[in-house]
Amino acid sequence: MHLRKDHAEHNIPALRQFVRSNPLGLMTTAIPSPSFPLLQSTHIPFILDVDDESSETELGRLRGHMARQNPQSKALVEALSDPSSPSPGSNVLEQDVLVVFTSPVQHYITANFYSETMAGDRKTAPTWNYSAAQVYGRARIHYDADVPATADFLMKQLADLSRMGETAIMGYTAADAWTVADAPDSYVARSRRLIVGVEIAIHRLEGKVKMSQELKPRDREGVVRGLKALRTETADRVAELVEERAALKQCPKVNAVES
């Protein structure tokens, strides 16, 4: 990720919150294979586990699952089952994986918004405002359906993911929320054999919030005016973030990623 100083987000708790606010990550792998493409990606909703929520440095672990029939799953299992691999029998992938989380709050920014520069030397160009986080880590793949630890991981993953969706996203109370226990045991057991679990130990977490921080004050004010004039929900939210990031630029110690 290209991180210029104005856009880089280094606050780890804020980045953890960004991942939780935007849990649908795009996991990309680069696995040499005679049967599947080298590069593959899958959108996966992730749970972020953190041992100490008060920690300013802990990166945490991601948990998710994907369909066993997904070609990326097949490439993962193939790599881990290869007897010639450096660690035969291990369920930890040799190569790092990359997971990208992106906020839906993003917008094109026309150079016409830059009131100061366009009235002067006009040395500028359009751009795009957005926020994203990138996770790098080692992935443990829970793929052997006959191993009790795999069943335990997948059951916990399914329960935790549905709980997050039902309460944090849908806003249901515990009494109204759907749970895995609401489905027939036979259906759950059959479904569990059709997925593989993904557990990523994060060793690098980067964030970028590109919200016109690099602009001259009057150009940035023009961006806010121009976005608000569009009168759309997304444009209004981006305008708010541009204002918030401008304020944070004056007080960098109060840095925080917005969703």
Description:
This protein has 259 residues and is α+β, with helices and mostly antiparallel strands. It is elongated. It contains seven helices and nine strands. The chain has a domain at 8-108 and 127-145 and 193-213: Pnp Oxidase, Chain A. Strands 1, 2, 3, 4, 5, 6, 7, 8 and 9 form a nine-stranded antiparallel beta sheet that branches. The two termini are 18 Å apart. It has helices at residues 12-21, 71-81, 115-118, 148-169, 185-192, 217-230, 233-250; strands spanning 8-9, 24-30, 39-45, 47-49, 61-67, 97-102, 107-109, 127-142, 195-210. A hairpin with an 8-residue loop joins strand 2 (24-30) and strand 3 (39-45).
Overall CATH class of the domain at 8-108 and 127-145 and 193-213: Mainly Beta
User: Strand pairing plus helix content: what structural class?
Assistant: alpha+beta
Order of helices and strands: EHEEEEHEEHEHHEHH
What does the largest sheet look like?
9 strands, antiparallel
Described by the principal axes of the CA atoms, the overall outline is: elongated
- Distance N to C terminus: 18 Å
Strand fraction equals: 25-35%
Q: Helical content, roughly?
A: 25-40%
List the total number of helices. Answer: 7
Fourth-level CATH superfamily of the domain at 8-108 and 127-145 and 193-213: Electron Transport, Fmn-binding Protein, Chain A
The poorly predicted ranges are none
CATH topology of the domain at 8-108 and 127-145 and 193-213: Pnp Oxidase, Chain A
Count of DSSP strands: 9
CATH architecture of the domain at 8-108 and 127-145 and 193-213: Roll
Mean pLDDT: 93
Radius of gyration: 22 Å
Protein name: Transcriptional regulator
Region (Disordered): 67-90
InterPro entries: Split_barrel_FMN-bd, TR_PAI2-type
